[in-house]
Structure formats: C-alpha cells, structure tokens
Task: inverse folding
C-alpha cells in the first residue's frame, strides 16, 4: 500500500498567492514607472502628438498640406477637447466640496480653497462652452460668451499667479532647510525644487495664455497660433517633467 504525503495549504494563503501582482515580486523597473506616467498623462500624450506634428508642419513647408498629418492633428485635438467635460464636472464637484467645508468650519484655509475652486470652475466653464461651440453642439450668444471669455481668462490669470506665489514660498522654505541633511533627503529636496521650477514655468505660460484670452474678449485680439503653440509646448514639457519627478522620487505634494 502506497503512502502519499499531502501538503495542505490554508485557503487564505492560496488566495494571497494568486492575488499578489507579479511586479511586487521584483525590483521596481523603469518600464513600470513609464507605464504609470503614461496612464496618468493621457491628455499630455495627445498634446505631445498634436504639438509634435504642428511643429513639423511649421518647420517643413512640404508637410503643411499633407492630409495625413492634418487629420492626425484633428484626431488628437478631438481627444484633448473631450477632457473639457471631465475638467468641468470635476470643478463642480470640487467647489461643492469647498462649500461643504465652509459650512462645517469657516477658516482662512477653507475660504482660500473655495476661492481657488471658484477660479478653476470659471476657467473650466469657459473651456467647456468653447468646446461645445467649436464642435457645433451648443453655442451661447455673444452677449454671454464674450463676458464668459473675459471672466474665464481673468480667473486663469489669478489662479496661475496664486500658484506661482505658492511655489516661490515652498522653494524658499526648502532652500532654508537644505543644510545638514543626509544625501537621500537632499536628493528629494533637490527633486522638489526642480518640480517647483517646472511648476513656475508652466504657470507663467498659463498666466500669459489667460491674459491673451481675457484681452481677446475686449479687443477681439487673437494671438498668432505659433505663440499659443510655443506656450503650450513649454507647459507640456513642464507637466511631463513634473510627472517623472513625482513618480521617480515619490514626491508627496
């Protein structure tokens, strides 16, 4: 008669083994970091594709009327514009949360949060109705849309200026505390300072765009497309750089 030795595993142990992701069994890889950056930057990937081919059209005259490039630019622009719906609905939820905080406890911090949320909502409202207008879905009358453009642009200027001031304050504090720190902490501080540099550059460009939008509502001013493209490219590079720094150094912002 044969004797069998059976190893019995607890059901929970089997479940843990099955549910454990394979990436947790190995050292972090640059490919996984890149994957997280791609997933969290869908809009920026669309922007990068569009702007790259726009620069190609501006640089090489022979590609200006190429139908494939023109259609690709249109296709990626549609994808970008679809995010206006997300930004608009997200801003509504954010300002609702701000009001909830004010009702519970009115402090300078909650009031500041409400103000910032309101500025963000005004800008995203303008973007939302601009997209609806551009795709002939719904158009506000000029008596409503033009003032909305001025208010939205001004809100973008104020919120960008506020973020610039905050980043300057954060950078000043970090520079004052950088001495007598060990190597790992100093590397993280350096990464956070570089993050602030990119954030400031992005917000300066955003401020300029907001100014052009608000001025356009008063004097029918339209800046050349290459100006918007240049500013947009700087913003794009800054945002992607921020994502890389955030994922690489696990920055808590």
Result:
């Amino acid at each position: 008669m044969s004797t069998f030795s059976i190893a019995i595993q607890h059901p929970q142990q089997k479940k843990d083994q099955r549910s454990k992701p394979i990436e947790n069994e190995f050292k972090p890889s640059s490919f996984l970091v890149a994957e997280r950056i791609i997933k969290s930057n869908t809009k920026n990937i669309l922007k990068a594709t569009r702007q790259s081919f726009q620069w190609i059209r501006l640089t090489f005259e022979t590609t200006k009327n190429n139908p494939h490039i023109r259609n690709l630019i249109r296709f990626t622009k549609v994808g970008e514009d679809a995010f206006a719906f997300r930004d608009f609905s997200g801003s509504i939820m954010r300002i609702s949360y701000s009001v909830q905080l004010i009702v519970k406890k009115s402090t300078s911090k909650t009031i500041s949060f409400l103000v910032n949320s309101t500025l963000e909502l005004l800008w995203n409202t303008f973007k939302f109705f601009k997209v609806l207008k551009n795709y002939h879905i719904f158009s506000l009358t000029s008596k409503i849309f033009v003032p909305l453009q001025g208010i939205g642009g001004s809100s973008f200027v104020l919120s960008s200026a506020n973020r610039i001031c905050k980043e300057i304050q954060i950078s000043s504090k970090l520079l004052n505390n950088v001495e007598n720190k060990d190597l790992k902490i100093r590397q993280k501080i350096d990464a956070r300072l570089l993050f602030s540099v990119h954030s400031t550059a992005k917000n300066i460009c955003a401020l300029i765009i907001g100014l052009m939008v608000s001025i356009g509502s008063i004097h029918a001013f339209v800046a050349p497309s290459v100006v918007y493209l240049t500013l947009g490219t700087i913003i794009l590079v800054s945002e992607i750089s921020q994502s890389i720094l955030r994922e690489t150094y696990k920055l808590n912002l």
